[in-house]
Amino acid sequence: MKHLEDSMQVAFFKWADMQYPNLNKLLHHSPNGGKRNATEAVRFKRMGVRAGFPDVILLLPKNGYGSLCMGSRQRRANRP
């Protein structure tokens, strides 16, 4: 895998599947990133894809929260 974010997410889901197999239907990756051609980009935008949406969502209510949403970002020189 050429992107650090991709390999981190694959490792996270492997870990989660091994540690918490009962959560596999509640833990989800939203594939919003990636390169798309113009037609696909327009179609996905119309379907509700939003920039900045979390990468991983755990739909498990706990301690008064309805879900856990996480995003991973690779550090870049121009972004903290």
Task: Report on the architecture of this protein.
The protein is globular, with a radius of gyration of 15 Å. It has one domain. The longest helix has 16 residues. The protein has 80 residues and is of the alpha+beta class.
Query: What proportion strand?
Result: 5-15%
Number of domains: 1
Structure class: alpha+beta
Mean pLDDT: 86
| Total E-strand runs | 3
Order of helices and strands: HEHEE
Brief descriptors of the model:
80 residues, alpha+beta, three-stranded antiparallel beta sheet, 2 helices, 31% helix, globular
Please summarize what this structure is:
The chain has 80 residues and is an alpha+beta fold. It has helices at 4-19, 38-46, and strands spanning 27-29, 56-58, 68-70.
Write the layout of secondary structure elements.
Blueprint: H1 4-19, E1 27-29, H2 38-46, E2 56-58, E3 68-70
Antiparallel strand pairs: 1-2, 2-3
